[in-house]
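Proteins fold reproducibly. Take a sample protein:
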Amino acid sequence: MTHRTTTGSTSRIHLVWDWNGTVRDDLDDHVAALNATLPRIGGPLIDTATYRALHAVPIRGFYDTLVGRTITDEEWSRSNKEFLDVLHRRPVRLRAGVRQLMLGLRAAGHRQSLLSLAPHDRLLAEVEQVGIGGLLERIDGRTGEPAHSKAPALAAHLAALGVEPSRALVIGDSLDDAVAAQEVGAVAVLHTGGLHSAERLAAAGVPLADTLREAAEMGIALLNSRPGVGR
């Protein structure tokens, strides 16, 4: 198992993209995959609004909330595998305009990478399927059990890249993306069209954007306003 890394030029700002719900436009896929697994453990079918209102890390706790009880280890293991299998069979759709956005950011001298809590091997396969791997200096997914927070993975990701957190911009779609960025000292901008609703994201206290282009522009401007960044 390897982590995908390519050489990139040094620039003032490094963008760390989230995958599910951010670069990959897959909210509907997540709802469909969850509805394929929840009834097997006595859970209800849910709609998109419910998913966006309740989705949380750790994911096992999300299942507990939806089912209304603490699920067993066996139920969790089976449900998580079934969910990932269903999700992996769905066609990978990039969010509209993201490829062009990444190309423009690279042309402007910005560095980019991808960090996800999705299983690493599946993540690599999905990224290669849509052909954006060459735009990213590093691609990291989860290699162990589902995490309770993205912060440790983000710290390790930036360290592997040699990027100072104060020069990093995290673009994601969940509260955990904001918490992780804050814990390591990076800047976060959250996209409102992903797995968490805009109402929930507002509680994070970080900038919100309706498009990924707006998120990148807002984050870059914010980082450039910091003393010592890009100077």
